[in-house]
Amino acid sequence: MSVDMSSQASDSNEEDFGANSEEEDDEDDGAEEEDQTDYYEGVAGDVEQQSADSFDPEEYQFICLSYKDSQHVLTEEVNTVAAALKVSPSVAKLILVHFHWQVSQILDRYKSNSSLLLSEALVQLSSTCRSVTAPQALQCGVCLQVVWRDSLLALPCQHSFCKACWEQHCTVLVKDGVGVGISCMAQDCSLRMPEDFVLPLLPGEELKDKYRRYLFRDYVESHFQLQLCPGADCPMVIKVQEPRARRVQCSRCNEVFCFKCRQMYHAPTDCATIRKWLTKCADDSETANYISAHTKDCPKCNICIEKNGGCNHMQCSKCKHDFCWMCLGDWKTHGSEYYECSRYKENPDIVNQSQQAQAREALKKYLFYFERWENHNKSLQLEAQTYQRIQEKIQERVMNNLGTWIDWQYLHNAAKLLAKCRYTLQYTYPYAYYMESGPRKKLFEYQQAQLEAEIENLSWKVERADSYERGVVGGEGELSASDRGDLENQMHIAEQRRRTLLKDFHDT
């Protein structure tokens, strides 16, 4: 659609692991504003072909577990290891944490060399933490006080200290948020303290409950198949069969994140690369602020214009000139130039130039990719407003008996699919920035350009449909059957471009 141009002059989870955390919140949160990340739901079936190319590379099986359910999963594995290794459950937990809950690996290694396995896990075969056999009175190694033998305690390493020092040691560490990581007080001794040794030393139920929460956090975070939901105050746990950098969504708080790194989902860019990119963007915050100012001059009449829609196909409100927002090129010939518009042209002779020249070239390259990354982020925000308008218009028409929700579902699906595709496109730019030059990068840039072209076409059609429904184009009314068919066909093309790119370049 033609876009009008106007003239310009952490422990967040801990409170949920109490007695009531076993029950999930089933209340309907329909009154909450729909998040941009909901676009993954409910649109795939409308654009898939019933053929081999309908496979979605982002398809990923996972389940959401409540606190009670995840405790049950952990307990089953603890009992299996404890029985096989003939150790207490508390020691079995320490072993499982060290080996990331790889039960089969633990059992195999125990059969081949049990002593090595126990030493690597920083535990010993005997889990009984007993008073030291010694004379009636001994000196505590920490406070240097002479105390009765009954007041001295030791782990299997036989480093003995008075009960008061053990209590102080455990109390301080638990208050600092330490769970599994509490170890012997002796210098150069890293033997881990099992929970059945620590719990009796903690004063008060409140501190004991906090310690249990920290243990649960450590157990889940060390488990190769589990991830805590990063949503604020959410106790849910995501369980997968095979841990991968894939999109998961919490069933309780609807938080969407990457299972592998628990950050915002970032396909096709891998976890390590997106961390580098976000760190770089934060370090260059002033540059980011400069680019974020989304006003440019019309390349024909030079009037200052502002982008108020997601589509990069711009039309100046004064001279009606059509151009590309990113490169300011004429839109009439731009359809064949997406490959050039989205591809950074490397200087092949830069390695032979001065350090200052190389530094300028590096900045130029970063600005090229950052501007496009930021532009798609802005477009997502603007298109979210379009989506909201479409939702409101559909609701109004249904309430006025002008069709059913199903009659207007195609507009809803088109807006959601547009956001879904643009979200993927945004994350192709960090991927391309760090990608080494070569044939594979050329293929990636080609597919990126193809996706970008189809997204802009879809954005244009969605905004055109939105204008029709708001009476901007030709009065009140709906799209013609041919326009609707054109929109739905464009949805299919854009989604297939997205899937093709992810199929070839998504981190596996």
SSE topology:
Elements: H1 44-47, E1 62-65, H2 67-85, H3 89-98, H4 103-112, H5 114-120, E2 137-139, E3 146-148, E4 152-154, E5 160-162, H6 163-175, H7 195-198, H8 205-222, E6 226-228, E7 237-240, E8 247-249, E9 256-258, H9 271-283, H10 285-292, E10 295-297, E11 304-306, E12 313-315, E13 322-324, H11 338-342, H12 355-399, H13 409-426, H14 428-434, H15 439-469, H16 481-505
Helix pairs in contact: 2-3, 2-4, 4-5, 10-12, 12-13, 12-14, 12-15, 13-15, 13-16, 15-16
What key phrases describe this protein's structure?
Four Helix Bundle (Hemerythrin (Met), subunit A), mainly alpha, 2 domains, disordered N terminus, three-stranded antiparallel sheet, 508 residues, Herpes Virus-1, single chain
Strands of the biggest beta sheet: in what spatial order?
1-7-6
Mean pLDDT: 80
The level of helicity is 40-55%
Low-confidence stretches: 1-36, 44-52, 125-134
Largest sheet: 3 strands, antiparallel
Protein name: E3 ubiquitin-protein ligase ARIH2
EC number: 2.3.2.31
Enzyme class: transferase
Catalytic activity: [E2 ubiquitin-conjugating enzyme]-S-ubiquitinyl-L-cysteine + [acceptor protein]-L-lysine = [E2 ubiquitin-conjugating enzyme]-L-cysteine + [acceptor protein]-N(6)-ubiquitinyl-L-lysine
Summarize the structure.
Helices cover 47% and strands 8% of the residues. It has 508 residues and is mainly α. It folds into two domains: 64-258, Zinc/RING finger domain, C3HC4 (zinc finger) (Herpes Virus-1), CATH 3.30.40; 271-505, Up-down Bundle (Four Helix Bundle (Hemerythrin (Met), subunit A)), CATH 1.20.120.
